[in-house]
Protein 1
Amino acid sequence: MRILKNNLFVSLFLLVSSRLVSGDDYIVGTPKPKAPSSPQVREYNFDVKKVTLAPDGFSRRIWTVNGQFPGPPIVAFKNDQVKVKVTNNLGDQETSIHWHGIKQVGTPWYDGSVGVTGCAIPNGKSLTYDFKTPDPGTYWWHSHYIAQYVDGIAGSFIVHDPADPYLSLYDEEFTVLLTDYHHDEVSTNLGILQLPFDAGFREPSPDNGLINGRNNYNCTKAPAGSKCTANAGYAKFKFQRGKRYRLRLINTSAQALIFFSIDNHDLNIIETDGFDIKFQQAHRVPVHAGQRVSVVVIANQAADNFWMRGEIDVQCYFQPPVNLDPKFNAIVHYEGAKENVDPTTKPWTDALEHCIDLNPNTLKPLNPELIPSPVGTSLSLFLDVHPDEQKRVRFFINNSSFVHDENNPIINKVYNNYNLSAINPNQNLYTFNKLGEVIQVVIQRDHPFHLHGHNFWVLGVGQNETYQQGVSTLNTVTAIKRDTAVVPSAGWLVIRFVADNPGVWMFHCHIEWHFQLGMSVQFLEIPDKLKTLSQPPEARSLCP
Ligand code: C2O
Ligand code: CU
């Protein structure tokens, strides 16, 4: 009864307050949430359906969860249990949700990677994902079924830590979703990828960039016959002078590396993909597809309006995007500043290198860990792209292009005692049998790589050199951790992790187009232990 009353009060309040601000809604900081005294079960219902929306003024069908774009945020505390009942109401397509960065220890079948940890949810059916959140940090969720997240199925996933070592350094927090944005549906864009290589390979061009699902769009660029309204509006973040804000930046792009900044404000980096970093000051921060970075921003300016900026690094495409203004905006509005005016502030001018990450060598862990050695298994992965026999472009890892075995995922093959040595080479399967073994992976040439089921130490990167030339610079003492890291073009990346999470974990390029064209491997970790975990019948029953 009390809950009901509160809800009524809240909705009345929202109704009244939204009238007062006449649709010009500000995003206000979230106060630090009170930690529960014991772990909680957090339940969510995700109704996956298509809805027509116009986030930047251009109307299109968007694949949504509960009709929302961006999707509903998931918020939990360390050690909570999260249960998300996902119901597929798309009508004509399967779906599956991946919880990017959540390690799924003991629940590999809820990782959502179709053809690897399970099958997709057929239309009209549901699956309740049910897993723990032992690791605090900034994460996100997205569809892991045929580039579907590019049509809209993505949102934030925050795991709070009651003992967050940085809690005293900020007063409130914001989630800032950065994304490239396409007006064409994924099915059209996948068609572009299928053009013969002779036509000159290009990735689909984004039409815009969005911050928290908003930005303006120049409708004169929209094709004839489309529905487009100018000045759709920016996301507006409300600051109070003197307060300190943690901004959780999440890049949910199909492809883009995005440079983030706020005019006149320093960014203090404190987190990379759930890992605490020693305060590192910057003006502009690169965040690649799939990555998260937390920054603390101090509202130390006079009450005014400031541009928050995203910029797509157009140099990282095979061919420069057509018709794209790579710069996109939101507004930081100080309480007391003029309402409804665009800022007149100037951008930071710091030049950043193209197509590479935050330099892992200049970032230091807040709490250095003992990085395990010696290395048990050393893998070397060479990334490449070239046409196949049909003259279609494919992306290769060690000369093999990954193909999803949608209806018979590796996890099922393990449970069925399938002879894995007879597996199709296009499964790009690497098996680690020894629990606790230290795995080191050297990846060569150009692409942001994401590992499921783990985060990893970033021991080193090198640009315009071979791994052999750079190997002596590996940092095995104070390396930071991430779950998504960029392999520089004409360069290398070395990561290390411990095989301690029985399951099957994809390791793939987070540029969705490259992933769809085969740029993935899968790591089968401790199959003997995996077999002792019991796969829930409802997860298994999704497979035909
Ligand atoms: Cu964010 Cu395999 O994905
Ligand atoms: Cu790639």
Protein 2
Amino acid sequence: MGAGHPVLVQSMITEETRNVDACVEQIIGLHRVGCELVRVTTPSLGEAEAMAEIRAKVTERYGYVPLTADVHHQGTDIAVEAAKHVDEVRVNPGLFVFKRHGSRSEQVVSGDDTKRSQATALPKVDFRGSGGDQEVERLRQELAYGEREWQEELQAVEDSFVPVIEACKKHGRAMRVGVNHGSLSERMLVTYGDTPEGMVQSALEYLRLCEKHGYTNLNISLKASRVPIMVAANRLMVQRMDEVGMAYPLHLGVTEAGDGEYARIKSTAGIATLLMEGIGDTIRVSLSEDPIHEIPVCYDILQALGLRKTKVEYIACPSCGRTKFNLPIVLHQVREATKHLVGLDIAVMGCIVNGPGEMADADYGYVGAAGGKITLYRKHTVVKNGIPQERGVEELVALLKADGAWQDPPEDASTKTDRVMLPMA
Ligand code: SF4
């Protein structure tokens, strides 16, 4: 991950972890369609122990699949156990040493009679209120951590976290420091507010602890359900890492994106924006659907950005009054005939006037001409014209065969386990 490797695609299974056989099936299913790192939740020690059996059965039935264990609340023992069985342990700094939100306000109130009048109001405070909320700001100042308190909490984090660092070192495992906007610790919320800065500081604190204990096999995620926050947090993370000489891979995702078309657009907006800036080394598109649906979206994002190529790139005009054929139907026919030819760019353009110029650098062009005819292009060169429309697809396939660009489609694409990945220029 990172260091010039292709952007890695990952997802997370939804089966209950103690249901080992169901987990094994879902992990294999995800890997078959191209998921390169599969996350499994380990909410307690029992699930972390179950990872041993899951790992063994996946390997026995199918082969090696990289696995991540997802650790959240009070995670020391869970993460130490999981590190024996998986390739990566994910910890959430907001929950790893968990203090219930409101406990800080209760503590302050109980130790100071002058603030007792706030006793009923403070525990209800949600520091995730907007930064412009004066009441939230006032209470944050009221509850600000002193240097000693801050160091005590940090020491408690370190004491809980070091065994995990040592376990990852011992077993040669990676770790994701996975910060979520919705689960920042109370200390971070009181100090930085509900902000990208709070997310970044939350991650940096754990990264510094890892480095202090000689461990750097790390990557970071800063996820939010709101795209602008997720984008801002990741940009700020890169800036802050640059300032202190860190360069850890970033895992991108818009969390709780929902389902359907809007979830895909939302995920793409966040992930693609950052990838185009050169930020991001691995991605997960989180959908409230079967996770198997996440993988094609990841690949489409990467293909659209020119980062990985997993299928034919079709360039097709939207059609207009000049179009010489029913473009949606012809595009469908061309796609059905050629969609297994990973690596090619094929253009379907409605007219000879603008089509050849606008199909850019496609490898092959299928262009409508006057009189119900088709003209075929190889790059910008006309290869054959005057082809009757009904023979257009057939002639395109013949051209591909003549050029050695054709291969027969697999008999059953559903049995294909290895996606073809081509580097892109
Ligand atoms: Fe219209 Fe021709 Fe442009 Fe297609 S390529 S949108 S048919 S002008």
